[in-house]
Each structure stands twice: as structure tokens, then as C-alpha cells.
Amino acid sequence: MNSTINKPQIIATVKNQGDLDAALQSQCQTIFILFGNICNIGRIVNQVKMAGKSAFVHVDFLEGAANKNIVIEFLSIVSKADGIISTKSSMIKAAKAHDLISIQRIFMIDSITYHNIDQQVAQSKPDCIELMPGAMPKVIRWVTDKVNIPVIAGGLVCDEEDALAAFKAGANAISTTNQQVWALAETGCKVK
């Protein structure tokens, strides 16, 4: 697996071009792209790659793309993204077939989700999971103890305290749209 997600880091998550412009200027080395369409995603990913950063496209948010495996092939050929993010097991499997790093986004909403997470991971075999919301240190610890793949804490990580708590609980990385948290990337995230 790509070492991009294996080291403690802050991941810039972007929802529009303004966010992307700021992320490209940040010290964050990985960018999660949560906007775009099939006409402009190649350009968006190229901006990230030209800045020397890793680009991951959240395929569930990609406008004009049906949730079919062909969109993964399209991203692999047209955009040269490093990987994808999806909540759908079929998309994760397709990404692996096209040698893209796969991140499965999992919303931890109840104990049923927790008790089934190892089965879900075994079925889709993602390279890592993005656990949402990411401001739950106790639950992050439970999940990192249960699965044997990197865990990214994402969603509702609002400040340095949330980020440090997630890292201390075992998260490999933090994904956030909060630009103030992106500034933590300048410190090198030396919390583990």
C-alpha cells in the first residue's frame, strides 16, 4: 500500500475550488476531493499532482458519474488519481482492480455498525477506512483494535485537541475541511 496513508498526517478535504486553492498552498501532502464532475475532475486532479501532492477522489460525490465500476476505470485512465474514497463496497473492489488506493468511508452511527465493521472490511478489502465522525477517540480505539488496516479519522475534527485525541486513539491520519486544522501539517504531526 502507498505510504501516503501509513504516516501520521493531516489530510486536506476540499469541497470547492476555493478550498482546493488553499489546500494546494498548505503543508498537507494528501488531498481528498469531494467536488467535481466527469468533465473537470481530470483538471482538478492534475492541479493536485502538479503541486506534488496525492489526490483521492470521493467517487460518491463525482457529478455525472453513476455508481458503476466504469467510473473507476475512467478515473484511473483520465485523471491519474492516486485513489478513491467511497462508501460502496463495489467501488472499493473496482478501485483495487485498477490499482488505485481504496479508502472506504464508514459512518459509525451505532453498535451494529461497529460489530459489523470487520465483516465489511473483509468483504471489500479497502486499503484503509475513513471513520466518520472522527472526533470520537474511544470509538477510534475500538476500531483500530478490531481492524488491521489504517484508520483515517474524518468529520467533525474541529481543532488541534480533536486531532491530537484522534491520533492518540490510533488514527493514522485526520481528514478535515477545517483549514485551521490543516495548519497542524506544518508541525509534521509528531504525535505518535
From TrEMBL:
Transmembrane regions: none
A Pfam family matched in the record: G3P_antiterm
A biological-process GO annotation: glycerol metabolic process
Gene3D superfamilies per the UniProt record, alphabetical: Aldolase class I (3.20.20.70)
InterPro entries given in the database record: Aldolase_TIM, GlpP
Official protein name in the record: Glycerol-3-phosphate responsive antiterminator
Native source organism of the sequence: Photobacterium gaetbulicola
Taxonomic placement: Bacteria, Pseudomonadati, Pseudomonadota, Gammaproteobacteria, Vibrionales
